[in-house]
Amino acid sequence: xxxxxxxxxxxxxxxxxxxxxxxxxxxxxxxxxxxxxxxxxxxxxxxxxxxxxxxxxxxxxxxxxxxxxxxxxxxxxxxxxxxxxxxxxxxxxxxxxxxxxxxxxxxxxxxxxxxxxxxxxxxxxxxxxxxxxxxxxxxxxxxxxxxxxxxxxxxxxxxxxxxxxxxxxxxxxxxxxxxxxxxxxxxxxxxxxxxxxxxxxxxxxxxxxxxxxxxxxxxxxxxxxxxxxxxxxxxxxxxxxxxxxxxxx
Length: 249
Fold this sequence. Notes:
By secondary structure, the chain is mostly helical.
């Protein structure tokens, strides 16, 4: 590397970090902007939420088997369950796939997403939907949906984590499965009547947005001296200069 390459690298890193900051600001504006509308009980939003939750719970109430399936899915997608699986995937990526920095980044972002959801609930303190004949109940505050936020963040982060290991063409399938998983989890909360549609919508947007913002910052990481330290992610990518040099040796 020549001395002329250093300023270029620094500018590239700076642009990526700025992009990460912009994504983070957008996520915060959506989360706490809608949270403000929720906390102030903005009429149009509350009326829409109430109408949709009444229709969703009426549909579930008439279908006991559907309700039981929703409750099973609710238990399977508890954030603690997702993050236990996520931690195991990160450990595998670190020990067996050589994606050390990527695994640490993924795990740290998962924990950040989990805590962000808890903090937002305490800030907004929205009550759960009040349904005349409830089909299910849940403790705690309603906004944003912890299930939706954590499912979206978890699915997005796992996809990003394993992306370098996927065969060509498999990426679209994995993304589709992750999207379907997130959608089903979000709908589960509404059809059980434990979250308003705005809770799950903002939860999904926040989870995906946080993951993308974090990755934008992570992808700008570079070792201070590439001659002494290699990014295992770059080394494992056959298209990267580090991998090419390694193969030439």
